[in-house]
Amino acid sequence: MNFHILTLFPEMVLNGLNTSIIGRACEKGLLSIEAINIRDFTKDKHKKVDDYPYGGGAGMLMQAQPIYDAYLDVVSRIPTRQRPRVIYVTPQGSVFHQDMAKSLANEQDLIFLCGHYEGVDERVLEEIVTDYVSIGDYVLTGGELPAMVMIDAISRMVPGVLSNEDSGETESFHDHLLEYPQYSRPEEWHEKKVPEVLLSGHHANIEKWRLEKSIERTKERRPDLYEKYRKSLEENQ
């Protein structure tokens, strides 16, 4: 799978993503991540990519031309006639979730547009963007961190990226349930003991305990997710 990130800060995203599991997946050829510097495509001799918004207002706006030309450069190198999906990371978009990560992991190429300043000229968004996506109801200084969050989550759904094929499916949010509590050695720490069932070797009992704890934790910490879980049970009865 190939990620193409249109950004003003390529070092930021590359340094953050070329490590740990994602970095190893890139070394194996399972993923490729490139950061395209939007400034490289401006026609301004001072490498300027922003200007004042028409109608007034605070701050500067990213101009359409450099973004569009950076986009065209990426598209020209994608060996498919199908228009790639372009994700603009914005608080105005649909909230990112695990099912969206799974869906996007089926794409061969994804382009992320990282905005800055007070936003991006609406005309280029209309021209190239296919998906408006948010990671939450708050404002950050730029789109790089949200893009990195989404790329990390999407990458984990790509076959072969995780060493354990099941781990991507059994973590938090699978089937609308949070992950169960987990424990490692030693068996007792700060007078807290590992639950006996996990030491029993009885796999059926362990799975039952884990499900019970997942349900209990979800109901307590994420009642919105628990409601989805409850409704899915009713629909499957």
Descriptive overview:
By secondary structure, the protein is an alpha/beta fold. The protein is built from ten helices and nine strands. The strands form three sheets. It has a five-stranded parallel β-sheet, with helices on both faces. The protein has a two-stranded antiparallel sheet with strand order 3-4. It has a two-stranded antiparallel ribbon with strand order 8-9. Helix 3 (64-76) packs parallel to helix 5 (122-128) and helix 9 (203-221) packs across helix 10 (223-236). The longest helix has 19 residues, at 203-221. The mean pLDDT is 93.
* Mean pLDDT over all positions: 93
Structural class: alpha/beta
The shape, in one word, is elongated
Largest sheet: 5 strands, parallel
Radius of gyration: 22 Å
Total number of helical segments?
A: 10
Low-confidence stretches: none
End-to-end distance:
37 Å
Order of helices and strands: EHHEEEHEHEHEHHEEHHH
What is the strand tally?
A: 9
What is the strand content?
15-25%
Q: Helicity, in percent?
A: 40-55%
Strand line-up across the major sheet: 2-1-6-5-7
Spell out the blueprint of helices and strands.
Layout: E1 2-7, H1 10-17, H2 20-27, E2 32-37, E3 50-51, E4 61-62, H3 64-76, E5 85-95, H4 98-104, E6 109-113, H5 122-128, E7 131-134, H6 144-155, H7 167-170, E8 188-189, E9 192-193, H8 196-199, H9 203-221, H10 223-236
Parallel strand pairs: 1-2, 1-6, 5-6, 5-7
Antiparallel strand pairs: 3-4, 8-9
Helix pairs in contact: 1-6, 3-5, 4-6, 9-10
